[in-house]
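Notes, Module 5: Reading structure tokens.

Key idea: the token line is not a picture. It is a compressed description, and you learn to read it the same way you learned to read a sequence, by spotting repeated patterns. We will look at two proteins. The first is printed below with its tokens.
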Amino acid sequence: MNFFGQMGAFFPALIFGHIVPATHRFDYPVYVVAVVLLAGSLLWLATDAE
């Protein structure tokens, strides 16, 4: 679990570092975070709690 938490902190920094220079906009990485959070929320709804 710790490994995936660390990867979740490492890879967005790399991705953001490539998105901002390519697009010259700082709002696109925020959109990426929003899409990932939305996908995680929808996957959470599909999780069986039992």
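Here is the second protein, with the sequence above and the tokens below, as before.
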Amino acid sequence: MAKKKSKKTITKEMTIGEVLEINENLGEVFLGFGMHCISCPVSQMETVEEASMVHGVDVEFLLKKLNENA
């Protein structure tokens, strides 16, 4: 019997870098919100919540989309 891979929930406290480590394709979700910070060195230190504030994005809606696509 194959083990079911547990899915890690993305939270607003995670850095963008941590989110991209879970699934590098989530960069597309960030880009869809106009957040081009995925290639920025700051992404290793900036949380999803901080990036959302800087870009004027609703963090809860972003988290919903990230977790749907993780």
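Summary for the second protein:
- Residues 16-69 form one domain.
- The chain has one domain: 16-69.
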